[in-house]
Amino acid sequence: MLQGATLERVGIDAVALKPAEVDVERAVDLDVDTLAVDYEGHEHLPAAETLADLAAEADVRVTTPVRADGFDPLGDDGLASALPERVRRVLVAGHPAYLTDTERERAVAPRLSEAADQCRDPWVGTEGIERIALAVGGTQFELLGPGTDRRLRALRQAGYDGEVAVYAPTVLTDDEDGVLDALGAYAARRGPVASALPDGAPTDAAAEGRAREVLSQAVRDYGLVGGVDDVSERVDELKSAGADRIIGYPARGLDPIL
């Protein structure tokens, strides 16, 4: 079993936590200095006391969708105001799956800009709003995908000298079935992958033939997978292209890396 120290060895700078999947309090035992708590709806938002306890042990950021009630800087911002002082934020437009119809209709740009003005050292999610995020400033926080290296190099060649953090689902194993079980469904939700998969094909270790071929490539396009040397090499490539931080989401949970 891989231990937490392996995260530092492969170049992972921070760990992303999904509170609907893991007990975030256990993350204090990870060998990283920064923890990022993903937003999965109000019902899964950790209590302020829990976040404060984490922030006493590590640098903690919480993903806050600026269109959502409770985090709207132009409306109800009660949840944002209740975050412990030491907890910083990752500002995002918000995944539609976690927003109501009313929240989805709210304008992103003015809310993102206002929230950034109110924050210390914000990270700004770029997914679907790349130009707006770049205009707002802060650390650009983007999801790993097949075009990430090219976009990073283009940014740097254009003279962008701000910080960029790349979020990547991570599976530290050479076992292909384990990789597909952990990340196959995630990769299959991406448009190009869904289009390439045969209709009705399994998206986990049960995939065969063309489906398995597509998924095996896709999990590597959208995630960090493989043994320590493979992942370390991929992280080095991303940092050489222009990434400052790599944020790993442990797709198999915390147990394999604690």
The count of β-strands is 9
- Any idea what the shape is? globular
The major pleated sheet works out as: 8 strands, parallel, barrel
The CATH topology name of the largest domain reads TIM Barrel
N-to-C CA distance: 9 Å
| Proportion of helical residues | 25-40%
Query: Could you list the spans in which at least 5 consecutive residues all have pLDDT below 50?
Result: none
Give the assembly state of these chains. Answer: single chain
Order of helices and strands: HEEHEHEHHEHEHEHHHEHE
Q: At CATH's second level, what is the architecture of the largest domain?
A: Alpha-Beta Barrel
Number of domains: 2
CATH classification class of the largest domain: Alpha Beta
CATH superfamily of the largest domain: Aldolase class I
What percentage of amino acids are in beta strands? 15-25%
How confident overall, as mean pLDDT? 95
Strand order of the largest sheet: 1-2-3-4-5-6-7-9
